[in-house]
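no rush on this but wanted to send it before i forget. theres a chain ive been looking at and ive put its sequence and its fold in token form underneath. i want to understand how the tokens follow from the sequence so walk me through it. thanks a lot i owe you, the record is right below:
>
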Amino acid sequence: MNCFRIFSFLDVITLCRCAQVAKFWNILALDGSNWQRVDLFDFQRDVEGPVIENISKRCGGFLKSLSLRGCQSITDTALRTFALQCQNIEKLNLSDCKKLTDLTCSNLGKYGSRLNYLDLDSCCNLTNNALTAIGEGCPLLKHINISWCLNINDDGINALVEGCTKITDFICKGCHQLTDAGLSLLAECCPCLQVLNLHSCMNVGDNGMGSIGDNCPDLETLCLSSCSFITDLTLVSVGQGCANLTTLEVAGCTQLTDAGFQVLARNCHLLERMDLEECVLITDVTLSHLAINCHRMSNLSLSHCELLTDDGISHLGSSMCVTDCLTVLELDNCPLITDSSLEYLMMAQNLQRIELYDCQLITRAGIRRLRNRLPDIKVHAYFAPVTPPASVGGGRQRYCRCCTIL
């Protein structure tokens, strides 16, 4: 009995090795109760349909979690057997299984009523019919990832959220056909939303995000990077309606300004991670508001925010977030930042990494002083080589032969 319990703690590779030791060990190792969680990512190139069918038949109702991430040889046939045999499945990762179609989701909708986690990232053959099946048959679903499923539009999202109202994590990167209409229904049907990732959903705008702010007070993580239609109205909506926000990624949202971040910072005091890369309109005013209101900030990316100066960093340097929490600060391509900014960061005792690529006013001496104060910090910087002086006096002209000919 004790021996059998030991087998329940072993991973897939160890179980397979144990099965080859002796007949009795084979029986114990391959017992379905030891295969409640299976991750085949490390074997993604080798796993084909028969493997999944055999695992499904052996595990049966014991299997609770299965990851087939990257197993690109898997087809609908194998997943049909899996859905029939493993009806207690709760967590399923099918990311990058590119041969799967709507048929797989149809079978999951029929037999996977206990499913609460489903990752369909880059399953590029899926259409709205797939989400309709999931919406009709998986009412317990909380986590869904349909990133880069380019055939899915608002109709599919609507069918999903009308049946899966318990969704807390909605990840939809690169779904270009999602619009404000679909986003609004998501907000209305799934008020418990905590994670929303709309990276590169280029047709999402302020109206849809207004609905999120109005209906999803528990939102903690929001990614809107490369959503170019987003303006300060979104920051106002999120700031006024989502006070529990801890992570905000808005890289490449070039219409955002200090006014929007002022409202956000005044209301979202729990912010810990912000990616503001290429928010090219923000100035030191934004950093001032973050310094005053967001004392838990640990990761802050300001790369390509070219209007920022040492004054903005001085606000951060005198704030509680720098002295107590800040671990990562990215300032790549901030051309107005000088060594003075590094002086302001001397009190950041927890700072582990700072990015200074192409900050042309930062010197080696400034970095040396920072490292003397913070010896464990990792500084990523680039210094362009010094341009060689022009040749003086009768030196040979530096023309290649083709230039001479021309």
Notes: Residues 392-406 have pLDDT under 50 and may be disordered.
